[in-house]
């Protein structure tokens, strides 16, 4: 008995409802199947597509390219798996929307908890699930299936496929063809996606076709920067060249750049400036900033900085309750936020086209997570309109955070993978100062304990934009084409003033950040004490469990410090909030000491 992928004839070549990368990836995979595929020696192929180029559609076409008897589609998470199931489902399928099939469709089934049984899998043409459903040596699904049950396995976000769990899955079905789809063939740990890349769609073509946003990199360049090393306490002033050099070789310096209040504020100001410019240019206030943070505390610090500038900011983090994250994302989708901050939380599958400015507050040690973060702002707002100003994105970062080196990796990456990241970024520069007659900031930074360096001030901060095109003839040809259709901007020199902040906004931002800060600190104490947060014992009266009790103790000390109750926190003034900041570490030490006694 033939499967749907063997018996049905899909309308693919010449179908004007399909995008070029969808047709070409299908043809490349079909050629691979006919000419190269060998189940014993050569069974793995890769497809590299930029975000927003129709990868889900490509995945639905792949079983036809291999004339598959039964295919397995693996996603890295639940959200992507559910979306892929919709693309295969006859009532909402990509086949129907794109006039690929009529009347008859492949039979899909999704593995999801106890809702699916083995008979469903037997009756299906394609099985869709997330990798977590198939984890474990004694997995109930894999134990029930013969080694030849699937003749094709498709990995969405295939750069993960070199991980152990994914490799075990490949080994379970040793004769199945393997196809890896990804926007980047490199994982966050530097491992490269397995299999030969048989097709990739260059980013410059994706831009000119209007599939993805045109990106511009904005780098903050202080002419000088003063910093203090904690080991000797000496203050040193260095030039821009030395800032960049230290960023390339000193991990502590890079981390300080993105966490110290002084340099963090310049990234905040520059990203707000870029957002305001884009909102004015497009007359669309739904455009937003996405910021990458180092950790939970850093999320709170960045959110506070944006709120102090009057912007609606919030964060999502894996430490948060899923319902809390969902509420934040609901606000984002309802356009009730200007800024969303995250720590690698909004990666594969996250889709919000109105993210237009990426502010880099984290330090990326590998190219892949940086590409994934940039991908969050690459989805277009209006399809197939490359010259629409809504379809432009900006990446903002500091020269000392080693991100410039990441852009250099972009260049190497693009040439190694058929100009995948040969995208055009304009070149421009402008000053960043708080006043025309003021050339430096003098701010005592708020640092994390593990920072070795304290940034004291930056002088004559300027911003420049990077161009990803070298002297590559093909890249220059693409540049000329983009110029001919008006896609490049003028080189500009613009004075960028620091975003003004009122005292009320600063106070509100600090007050709103305090509960999150207290909760995070309480969890840190819980961890150091090695006690169960939901257990009892710290409260001698046995009324509260451990975590709420420590939170209450921190709050009691805070309230005693300023002589006010928790109910009157809305009345805390800026001096009281700054006093709390200055005495905060001492409060934590005192609370932890009481817990040990």
UniProtKB/TrEMBL annotation:
Residues 252-438 form the Helicase C-terminal domain. GO terms for cellular component: cytosol. SUPFAM superfamilies: P-loop containing nucleoside triphosphate hydrolases. Residues 47-203 form the Helicase ATP-binding domain. Transmembrane segments: none annotated. GO terms for molecular function: ATP binding; DNA binding; helicase activity; hydrolase activity. Keywords: ATP-binding, Helicase, Hydrolase, Nucleotide-binding. InterPro entries: Helicase/UvrB_N, Helicase_ATP-bd, Helicase_C-like, Helicase_Restrict-Modif_Enz, P-loop_NTPase. The keyword ATP-binding applies. Signal peptide: none annotated. The keyword Hydrolase applies. It holds the Pfam family Helicase_C. This is DEAD/DEAH box helicase. The lineage of its organism: Bacteria, Pseudomonadati, Pseudomonadota, Gammaproteobacteria, Vibrionales.
